[in-house]
Write a structure and sequence with these properties.
Elements lengths: L1 H20 L3 H11 L4 H25 L5 H23 L3 H26 L12 H18 L3 H12 L4 H27 L6 H21 L5 H21 L8 H49 L6
Helix pairs in contact: 1-2, 1-9, 2-3, 2-10, 3-8, 3-9, 4-6, 4-8, 5-10, 5-11, 6-7, 7-8, 10-11
Length: about 325
């Protein structure tokens, strides 16, 4: 019972993060399932089955807050579903001993990417209004879907930064569109896992509690995406993913590191992680102060223009 409550809380927290950043529900949840010894394919299958419900709830919530560009959803979601099905059948064909370290490597790479992306760059900005072409979104969806299924997560970490970097649609619509299109990816991946490993290898109680936590969090996350600092949240989540998957790799048969080496690695990661969060907080405050100064200057300029007398004709 205690483990089910913990999983429900993880589903809730993971969806809060995912709905706010446009990434990390699958990466966070799969990381935890691997940490407790779940088979790699079963872990990804469990998360993707839960994501059918959470992504539907998240997509509806983002739609109600006008955070979704449906053209983007169609152009990236269908290729993403194809890639996810291929990734699920590929992972299902691997042995447990081979699959777990491979998945941890993928998750670790995604965690490093999330940490660096949000710590160093924050949310990129560019020119808005230009259309996103299918020739860009279709290959992106195909790759992101494959990574998502094989890594137990990756749709958001691959898709969200790529679209954000284009600067062509507002960040909140990038996040909403990625979350909405992930519904198609979750269905395709789930079908692939059911074909590949069968339903007997999946704990549906775990699916249910992950789903419950995620559905409760979805509307809250869709509202929070307008109010919380994504830069700080991204740095925090990236560190969690890194340290958890480093732990899995160091204890795997591939490395089997002694205890003192593991301790040194954890301490080093913790120091870097703390520094990244501190840097993100500082940069976020600096950006807010800069925006406040610009707003005050704009208001003063507006008032000055209003008070200037109109020249006589």
């Amino acid at each position: 019972m205690r483990s089910l409550i913990l999983l429900a809380l993880v589903g809730f927290a993971a969806q809060l993060v995912d709905g706010s950043l446009g990434m990390a529900y699958g990466v966070t949840s799969t990381t935890l399932l691997l940490a407790v010894g779940t088979n790699a394919a079963a872990a990804s299958a469990t998360v993707h089955l839960a994501e059918i419900g959470t992504t539907l709830a998240s997509g509806i919530s983002h739609w109600r807050f006008n955070n979704v560009d449906w053209k983007v959803v169609a152009k990236i979601g269908i290729p993403g579903a194809v890639g996810a099905f291929a990734g699920a059948t590929f992972l299902s064909s691997l042995s447990t001993e081979v699959a777990a370290p491979i998945m941890s490597l993928i998750l670790l790479a995604l965690g490093v990417y999330i940490l660096i992306r949000f710590t160093v760059a924050g949310l990129p900005r560019g020119e808005l209004g230009k259309p996103l072409r299918k020739r860009f979104l279709a290959p992106l969806g195909l790759v992101a879907g494959f990574v998502d299924a094989t890594g137990g997560g990756g749709w958001g970490p691959v898709g969200t930064p790529a679209i954000l970097a284009s600067g062509r649609i507002p960040p909140r619509k990038v996040i909403g569109s990625i979350d909405a299109s992930e519904f198609l990816v979750a269905i395709a991946a789930s079908v692939g896992f059911l074909v590949g490993i069968g339903s007997e290898n999946i704990d549906f109680a775990w699916v249910g509690v992950l789903l419950l936590g995620g559905v409760i969090a979805a509307p809250i996350a869709a509202w929070l995406v307008r109010h919380i600092p994504p830069r700080i949240l991204g740095s925090a989540v990236g560190g969690v993913i890194i340290i958890t998957n480093v732990r899995t790799l160091l204890r795997s048969d591939w490395i089997d590191a002694p205890g003192n080496i593991q301790a040194i690695a954890y301490i080093a990661i913790a120091i870097i992680w703390a520094g990244a969060i501190a840097y993100s907080v500082r940069e976020y405050r600096r950006d807010k102060e800069h925006e406040s100064v610009e707003a005050v200057e704009a208001e003063l300029n507006r008032r000055t223009e209003e008070e200037e007398p109109t020249p006589a004709a």
